[in-house]
Design brief:
Blueprint lengths: L24 E3 L2 E3 L10 E4 L7 E5 L11 E4 L12 E4 L2 E5 L3 E5 L5 E6 H4 L12 E14 L6 E14 L14 E10 L10 E10 L8 E4 L12 E4 L15 E6 L2 H13 L11 E12 L3 E14 L1
Parallel strand pairs: 3-5, 13-15
Antiparallel strand pairs: 1-2, 3-4, 5-10, 6-7, 7-8, 8-9, 9-18, 10-17, 11-16, 11-18, 12-13, 12-17, 14-15
Length: 314
Amino acid sequence: MKRSIARRLLCCCIILLIPIQALAQEENGMKNMIQDADFRQGATIISPAKPLRMVGKLPLSDMPDAQSIWLVTQWHSKCNIRTIPLVIEDGAYVYKNEYKTVARDPDGTLTLRVNASEEYSRVRESIQDPWVHLYFEQRFAEPHPIGDAEEMRMQVKFAVPHFRDATPDGKTDPSVHAVIAMVYIILKDMNPESPAFGQYINFCVMLYDNRTGVTPEDWFVDTGYNPQDATQMMIYQMDSSEYVDPVYADGTWHTVDFDPLPFFKKALAISQEQGCMVGSKFEDISVSSVFFGFEMPGMMDCEIKIKDLFLGAR
């Protein structure tokens, strides 16, 4: 197995949030599990620090009263996005300051930016130091069973137009300092009769890592660097060459379009070999949530654009 240089950084902060529900969209003959995929209904804002608190609404279109499907989490940030005033520019809804940007273009393209050079007062010296996250996430009121699926599609278009390393010379440690952007799909055992009922796999589709154009396959248990935050569940990271060409911060648009079903099955088999999800059968598995965005362990600035997010099965 190739060992990912990201494995020392990935720590999946899964928060048990209030389930949400909305009408699914149809595409390619499959229903999109991902609801409000063009972000028109905005997002509910989660406070940057625990305890978990819902602190307001982030309108992203001319539907300010629509029920939010997405949650925006901003762990360990100095700035609560709730305090950033809305600016509408050529139809785009933009929340922007020196710390972060969240913006939605009229075509449904979502822009996320974190300026971690402003977030950190010093270079992180230990893997135990907390780091900045910016995620959009949703948890399904009724998880989607995939055990009987014959085919699935995962699709997303994205571009990384900006990256800057603001770490002082000689202070960068790639095992501690980085920018990573990814999509997580949570595969959960939903069978009450299963020995692993309630356990799950954090299935990672890496979009960008400033240290490499291609992220290798990897898997490990999320033991975390803070025992209170560790999920103790398996993280499985795909080899990014399976679904996208090498990715760099040059503004190039990339299209992810592949069938994740065989990789889901592989992730379950590996998890069980590693002592996780023991007793689960694939027919017990459902997609319980999806989230995407940034983790910023480095004193770095980065921006990503995302659109046309889709996950379906038949």
